[in-house]
């Protein structure tokens, strides 16, 4: 049975949403290794974390994703830090490394994500099967590729949430019911902490669902930014995948 997974960091753990021919499931994981252990038989796993780290320039995939989203949504894609910055121990060292590598600073958003980048990077460097299955995507790029109307409102408000549900419902008519069920089961219920999705992570749940549907529609044949992705010094592709439906 084909299986597709979207993974997003949700404040206190990795949120993995899976779909197959019969059902949807959502689960929280303490590490990306836990996600991989649980879903290693999936056809594709898309994760909203940079894979493939630059040396002396900004990644072309980040640049093209920003252009694709347009000026109103471009800021949702941040410039991926260089490998030396990702491997640094402190913010000051990371900022200095990024400055030395390519002459620009390091945003607080990028610094906050570095532990997650490092975690995924180490898994992929250690596991050849994981490298073939886990690919980088970006939820806003996925939503834009699925949307008929282009620009979506901010995902942090009710209007933006409704727009994103409708956007995904257009390509899979089970989304609205699944999202409502996930909210009732994993957010509004009194499940144990480790299994719950935080009440402030509704947007992360939708992001993970967008990645899941992208994995399903791409089914291993994805569109990519850029069209011919380069690799980093660890032979990891510097690309953002999406599905043009």
Descriptive overview:
The protein has 245 residues and is α/β, with parallel strands linked by helices. The protein has a domain at 3-50 and 136-218. 45% of the residues lie in helices and 13% in strands. It contains ten helices and seven strands. It has helices at 32-39, 60-69, 83-86, 91-102, 108-126, 128-133, 139-146, 158-171, 175-187, 202-218; strands at residues 3-9, 14-20, 24-29, 44-47, 134-136, 223-225, 240-242. Strands 3-2-1-4-5 form a five-stranded mixed β-sheet. Helix 7 (139-146) packs across helix 10 (202-218), helix 8 (158-171) runs parallel beside helix 10 and helix 9 crosses helix 10. The longest helix is centred in the middle third of the chain and has 19 residues, at 108-126. The two termini are 22 Å apart. The model has no long low-confidence stretch (mean pLDDT 91). It holds the Pfam family DUF429. InterPro entries: DUF429.
**Number of H- or I-type helical stretches:** 10
The number of distinct β-strands equals 7
Helix/strand class: alpha/beta
- Rg of Cα set: 17 Å
Strand order of the largest sheet: 3-2-1-4-5
Largest sheet: 5 strands, mixed
Helix content: 40-55%
């Amino acid at each position: 049975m084909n299986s597709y997974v979207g993974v997003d960091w949700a404040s206190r753990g990795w949120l993995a949403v899976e779909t197959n021919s019969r059902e949807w499931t959502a689960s929280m994981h303490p590490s990306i290794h836990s996600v991989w252990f649980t879903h290693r038989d999936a056809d594709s796993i898309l994760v909203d974390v940079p894979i493939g780290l630059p040396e002396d320039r900004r990644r072309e995939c980040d640049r093209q994703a920003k252009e694709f989203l347009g000026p109103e949504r471009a800021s949702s894609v941040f410039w991926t830090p260089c490998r030396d910055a990702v491997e640094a121990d402190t913010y000051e060292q990371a900022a200095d490394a990024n400055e030395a590598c390519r002459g620009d600073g390091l945003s607080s958003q990028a610094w906050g994500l570095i532990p997650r980048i490092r975690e995924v990077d180490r898994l992929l460097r250690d596991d050849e099967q994981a490298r073939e299955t886990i690919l980088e995507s970006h939820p806003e790029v996925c939503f834009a590729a699925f949307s008929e109307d282009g620009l979506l409102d901010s995902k942090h408000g009710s209007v933006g949430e409704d727009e994103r549900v409708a956007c995904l419902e257009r390509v899979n008519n089970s989304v609205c019911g699944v999202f409502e069920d996930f909210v009732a089961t994993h957010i509004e219920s009194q499940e144990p902490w480790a299994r719950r999705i935080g009440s402030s992570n509704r947007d992360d749940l939708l992001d993970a669902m967008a990645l899941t549907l992208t994995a399903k529609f791409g089914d291993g044949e994805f569109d990519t930014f850029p069209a011919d992705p380069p690799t980093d010094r660890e032979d990891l592709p510097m690309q953002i995948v999406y599905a043009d439906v």
